[in-house]
Design a protein that fits this description.
This protein has one domain. Helix content is 78%, strand content 0%. Helix 3 crosses helix 11 and helix 6 packs parallel to helix 9. The longest helix is centred in the last third of the chain and has 28 residues.
């Protein structure tokens, strides 16, 4: 099996897991608060990555170097990003939070202008206008001329999560740490902060085995296994666009799972808005592949 075929299989595995994320979030948040879910998922993910760091022989490197970067990066991811993202999922239907979160790539293109000194192309502007028109359709639930949002705070949380995620990757553009080591160090910083927030806040209550299973699933697969599979796909493939385009398979599968598992009715506004967002992302991808 050639490397590109292996990379595509790894990429499909990551996308398949990410497609279950919106459903897993909604299931878990039906039992526990966003902070409880965040703490449990971060703990599971931190332990999983620790095992991988040790197995790959990177523990000495992870303990000695890179903590200055991890000190601030860990506050962004996992703490700030996932807390805001889970808050959005807690307030919005999963389909809306998921669709709005997909605009992070466009947010990154916009933020790269002031942060990295890059310039916006005409295609960037067009792609952004199309995608954020989709955001407006979703946020207003199809009443595009009516500014009466169903849950404005939930929409704000979802959009802030995209800004945090884009900002995190832009600020880490020059990060010299190995991806797995960086992720484990970030979670090593974030987990104590989340523990403190949980102690002084709602505390952690036992919500049953189903709640525990949902939280473990989020930590192990969304934050752990999917990250490793995607990392392997990007490293093995001859051209990044061959795997990056696979991410477009995730939203339709996510919507189907939300409908089948969580019994969320599919809103026409979500479908239209998601099509606009994916069209904007596709234009941006097309431009990147030609660059």
């Amino acid at each position: 099996m050639n490397q590109d075929r292996q990379a595509i299989l790894y990429g499909l595995g990551a996308v398949a897991l990410w497609s279950t994320v919106a459903t897993a979030f909604k299931v878990a948040l039906a039992w526990m608060s966003p902070l409880e879910l965040m703490w449990l998922a971060a703990l599971v993910s931190w332990a999983f990555m620790f095992v991988l760091v040790v197995k790959q022989g990177h523990l000495t490197e992870a303990l000695r170097y890179g903590w200055r970067t991890a000190a601030w990066a860990g506050l962004m991811n996992p703490v700030a990003y996932y807390l805001v993202l889970f808050a959005a999922y807690d307030r919005l239907p999963g389909q809306e939070a998921m669709a709005l979160n997909y605009t992070w790539a466009l947010a990154m293109a916009l933020l790269a202008v002031p942060i990295l000194g890059q310039r916006l192309t005409r295609m960037d502007v067009v792609a952004g206008l199309i995608a954020y028109a989709g955001v407006w359709v979703i946020a207003t639930r199809g009443n595009v001329f009516n500014v009466d949002f169903a849950d404005p705070l939930g929409v704000v949380f979802a959009l802030v999560s995209t800004l945090l995620w884009a900002l995190y990757w832009l600020l880490n553009a020059r990060d010299q740490r190995a991806p797995l080591v960086a992720q484990w160090q970030n979670f090593s910083v974030g987990l104590p902060v989340l523990t403190l927030l949980l102690i002084v806040g709602p505390g952690f209550s036992w919500h049953g085995w189903q709640a525990l299973g949902a939280g473990v699933y989020v930590g192990l697969f969304e934050m752990g296994v999917a990250f490793i599979l995607w990392q392997m796909a990007v490293r093995k493939v001859s051209r990044t666009a061959k795997v990056s385009n696979l991410i477009f398979l995730s939203p339709p599968v996510s919507l189907l799972l939300l409908y089948l598992v969580v019994n969320e009715p599919l809103l026409a506004s979500t479908l239209v808005g998601l099509m606009l967002i994916l069209s904007g992302l596709a234009l941006q991808q097309l431009q990147s592949s030609k660059a």
